[in-house]
Write a structure and sequence with these properties.
549 residues; alpha+beta; L,D-transpeptidase catalytic domain-like; eight-stranded mixed barrel; 19 helices; elongated; disordered N terminus
């Protein structure tokens, strides 16, 4: 009689006990093994326990010399990094033909059926994931994991969802509390008679849901570089094999799945606020209040998405620059040990979002003016007044030599033929120092002679670099971390101020993260909302809304 799987709820509620049971060879009614499966089941001694072959093993007194081997270069010695392990032998069509038939279960739907053994399910997984002509995308995604474990199922046992599978489903059902869409991880149960094949497909459905959650939880649901050119990030996305291996070896499946989310305290604090806000919304009585609260939740979820773009390890000590916050923070062991005001890029010249490593500080820096700034902010004034560059203290150079800028018609000049440099000095745009983490954006932290900007509440005023209110105190702290014992005090730095540049290189680079968060949680546990100065949060929120739609 053909038994069918009736519903997701019924299947999820039925949990098999213990681990997979492999049918014993020769047991009554057990399906036979193909010859290649018998060979694979015979244990082989590890190679490191097999001694080298000797001439006597071949009845020889000594191995004869080979002029071919003596003259041929050994590719393994010359390029060991290109050597690859031999491929795992793939089963042939004859091997697949030797797999026994797959009779339907005779046990009532939803009840464990010991006749649907782990071995039978493994055989069907092998067909689905390794047989030529199968679903190539499915095979590429899941075969590496299942082949490595002999296709033994992870989430099912005795024809029903096992305890590990049920624990995974329960945790995936809470994905909404992570700022994700729980409906994306629902599984579709196979239809038709309950056979080892249908149970294998159920296994794959569960594996697919776990893998998709791991990808979303660790790396987000959007492609940041398609949202804005200012997002220069590489989300640390957890791939399928790594995710399933984590769940397979976990003692607590829910904890393992939760661990796919960012480990950072800032993420977990915001996630707790999301749960709290949703509880508040359920108690609201007016439609308008509920709508406003739901929009606020979406803003928070967009912030959670950007947390997923960060490296999973920020560093024991790191510099944290959140553009909407207009501050530079130094964080050690999760605690802010220094905080100073900052001026960030304007909306049209934004401070980009990326992570890097600060490696040196330049005292008495020259300002090599980017051509983009010359074209955007200086050419107009220079074309009206030939003395513009001289008044700004900017040298115009051509072929490595300083030229008289007042003799050039800047209205028609080819700006690309020139370079522009402001020498060190008290009026230099970079002030007395700059903090360097070389990057493709040519962005850095620096001092500034324009001190009045720090008194403003809206400090999105720069050309993209980050101006620091108290650079000497910041430099003293960072040099004490990067060059311990060298006594880089403020007084020592001031003694070096002058006309010549001096680079102070770190022995240990310090991570720096230029980020964009419009919602944070303060030390009192209160939600802090910051202005969306570049519109990034609205952009991410719209993308996530489109994904859900």
């Amino acid at each position: 009689m053909k038994m069918r799987l009736r519903s997701a709820l019924l299947a999820c509620a039925l949990i098999g006990a213990g681990g997979p049971v492999i049918a014993q060879s020769g047991a009554s009614g057990a399906p036979g093994l193909a010859a290649w499966e018998v060979d694979l089941a015979i244990p082989q001694p590890p190679l490191d326990r097999v001694g080298p072959l000797a001439p006597r093993d071949f009845g020889l007194a000594a191995f004869p010399e080979s002029p071919i081997l003596a003259e041929a270069p050994n590719a393994d010695d010359e390029a060991p990094e290109t050597v690859q392990a031999p491929a795992i032998p793939q089963p042939t069509e004859a091997d697949f033909a030797a797999i026994p038939d797959d009779p339907p279960s005779l046990v009532e739907d939803g009840q464990p059926d010991p006749a649907i053994t782990a071995e039978r399910v493994a055989q069907q997984l092998r067909i689905l994931l390794a047989k030529p002509g199968g679903d190539r995308a499915l095979q590429q995604q899941f075969n590496p994991f299942y082949a490595s474990r002999g296709y033994v199922p992870l989430f099912v046992k005795d024809g029903v969802i096992a305890e590990r599978g049920q624990a995974a489903l329960n945790r995936l059902g809470q994905a909404g509390e992570d700022g994700l869409d729980a409906t994306a991880y629902r599984i579709t149960l196979p239809t038709g008679p309950r056979t080892a094949e249908s149970v294998a497909r159920l296994e794959i459905a569960l594996a697919r849901a776990v893998a998709l959650y791991a990808s979303h939880a660790s790396g987000g649901r959007t492609d940041p570089k398609r949202l804005s050119g200012y997002f220069d990030v590489a989300p640390p996305r957890i791939e399928t094999t790594a995710a399933l291996e984590t769940v397979a070896r976990a003692e607590n499946v829910a904890t393992a799945i939760d661990g796919f989310n960012p480990p950072h305290a800032g993420f977990r604090q915001l996630r707790a606020k999301l749960v709290e806000m949703r509880g508040e919304r359920r108690e609201m009585t007016t439609t308008e209040a509920t709508r406003r609260h739901a929009l606020k939740e979406r803003d928070l979820i967009a912030n959670l998405e950007r947390w997923r773009w960060l490296p999973r390890q920020l560093g024991e000590t790191y510099v944290w620059v959140n553009s909407p916050d207009y501050h530079v923070n130094v964080v050690r062991s999760g605690n802010v040990i220094h905080r100073t005001r900052a001026v960030m890029g304007r909306a049209e010249t934004q401070t980009p979002v990326f992570s890097d490593a600060m490696s040196f500080i330049v005292l008495n820096p020259s300002w090599h003016v980017p051509l983009s700034i010359v074209r955007r902010s200086m050419l107009g004034a220079a074309s009206r007044n030939g003395g513009y560059f001289a008044r700004r203290g900017i040298q115009v150079m051509q072929g490595g030599r300083v030229v008289d800028a007042s003799t050039i018609d800047w209205a028609s000049a080819n700006v690309g033929r020139y370079s522009f440099r402001q020498p060190p000095g008290s009026s230099n745009a970079l002030g007395r120092m700059k903090f360097m983490f070389p990057n493709r954006h040519s962005v850095y932290l620096h001092d500034t002679p324009s001190r009045s900007y720090f008194a403003q509440s809206n400090r999105a005023l720069s050309n993209g670099c980050v101006r620091v209110q108290n650079p000497e105190e910041l430099a003293e702290l960072l040099l004490g971390i990067a060059l311990p014992g060298e006594n880089w005090s403020v007084s020592r730095m001031r003694s070096l101020y002058g006309a010549g540049e001096r680079s102070v290189r770190f022995r240990q680079a310090i991570p720096i993260h230029l980020v964009y968060f419009t919602m944070t949680v303060d030390s009192n546990g209160s939600l802090v909302e910051l202005p969306d100065i570049y519109g990034h949060n609205a952009r991410v929120r719209a993308a996530l809304t489109g994904i859900r739609g």
